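Exam revision sheet. Question 4 asks you to relate a sequence to its structure. Input first:
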Amino acid sequence: CLEEARTAALWLPDADPVARTWAATIRAATQRNPRTLLPGASGLPGAEGRLAAGVVALLAGDLGVAAGLLREAADHPDADIGVVAPAACAGRVVGLLAGKDVDDPATDLEALMLDAEVGGWPWLSRIGRALLALDTPGTAPAVEPCDPWGAAVVTFVDGLGRRAAAPLRAAADRFTELGAPVPGLWAACLAAALSDRLSRTN
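Answer key, structure tokens:
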């Protein structure tokens, strides 16, 4: 219980994590200089270490590196649903940012999200379903007010997938409120780029 409480505390807006565990490393990368954290993240052990390194690389903008590390995480012999499902979701985000499909054809994201929900990871299931909703135009992703991190990621995914500036700006605000300026900056920059492109076409 103490370890769970410490992990949960990492995601509070005023958290100041030391990048010693895989979860703390990911949280630290949402706050500052993810590229400088990548060497340490790459040395973390196990499937969770590969997942952490992949997410850190994603936050640093190293999309090719991120895609490879996330595949390693999902393929690791010790990987459970708590690694495979977030690795699949993060891989989809890499693909959206890169403008190409980097998914493993064998990955059934819908089945993974069902397993995540049954396994007690509803926030992860909501993120995955937001990614799946992009394949169905007109489908709105579910945003849970009591899950601020999930809501921020879902809003970001929605804006990124639909190439819509408004939800990206909303995601930037949500990340900023959560003390996560790195993904907040990603969202704000993408929103600005989309708005600039729209103004040039009008």
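Marking note for examiners. The two ends are 56 Å apart (CA to CA).
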